[in-house]
Write a structure and sequence with these properties.
235 residues, alpha+beta, Chorismate lyase, six-stranded antiparallel β-sheet, two-stranded antiparallel ribbon, 7 helices, 10 strands, 26% helix, Transcription regulator, WH_DNA-bd_sf, transcription regulation, DNA binding, DNA-binding transcription factor activity
């Protein structure tokens, strides 16, 4: 339950419901009809993602990354709130949505059997009517037996969580600079060879089972990446 409340807190922050400071624990207990312990665990999850800062004796304040004008990709949030890596109001244009069987290249990359059945999704994503990224994603059908077109058009992660109760336990993320190949350039109507930031991600659910692999190329201007690190040792 505390994970669900944490997700609602993140949404409230991103939607501008909480803009400066979180309500008190008592107010959140009433708002979400939850115990103090559940609220504290939910707040702690959000804090771990770098969305809050703790002021002793005063409470939790919203981190100012949420108030910046430029688009911020919060990579700290991937493990618990994968759907919030990107802005919440992205729109999608589906280029490919089909079922394939993995080849030797995918088998090596994902450490899965050859011929593993996968959903393949290639889509362009837009933010304020401007191209934001090109995303190529593969989902294991052994884990996600059905994906709807509506989910692919909106939020795949919301659909998976609601339909199957599956969340991300951990992920491996690789950032790199990539030069657009001919196919990528044509899909985005950009110059072949242009350099952009790419993110390769493998997401895992419970017991370290692979759920998906994605390759995302970001092309939105003024894009900022955010990482949050918590120092657990007292110096």
């Amino acid at each position: 339950m505390y994970r669900d409340i944490a997700t609602k807190l993140v949404a409230a922050i991103q939607d501008g419901i909480f803009t400066v400071k979180l309500p008190t624990e008592a107010q959140l207990m009433e708002r979400y009809q939850a115990s103090r312990n559940t609220i504290r665990k939910a707040i702690d999850l959000v804090y771990q993602q770098g969305l809050l800062r703790r002021v002793q004796g005063s409470g939790y304040y919203i981190t100012n990354i949420q108030l910046q004008h430029k688009t911020v990709v919060n990579l700290s949030a991937r493990s618990l709130f994968n759907s919030h890596v990107h802005p919440r109001t992205l729109t999608s244009k589906i280029l490919t949505f089909d079922t394939i069987h993995g080849d030797s290249a995918l088998s090596r990359k994902l450490n899965i059997p050859v011929d593993e059945e996968l959903y393949r999704i290639i889509r362009l994503r837009y933010w304020h009517d401007q191209l934001y990224c090109l995303e190529k994603a593969y989902y294991l059908r052994s884990v996600v037996p059905y994906l709807s077109t509506e989910a692919v058009n909106t939020s795949i992660w919301d659909f998976i969580n609601e339909a199957y109760g599956i969340g991300i336990a951990n992920s491996d993320d690789y950032l790199s600079l990539t030069n657009l190949n001919k196919e990528e350039a044509e899909l985005m109507n950009l110059a072949q060879g242009a350099t952009h930031l790419a993110l390769d991600s493998c997401n895992y659910y419970k017991n370290n089972g692979l759920l998906d692999f994605s390759h995302t190329i970001f092309v939105y201007p003024d894009l900022a990446l955010y990482f949050h690190t918590t120092n657990l040792a007292n110096n």
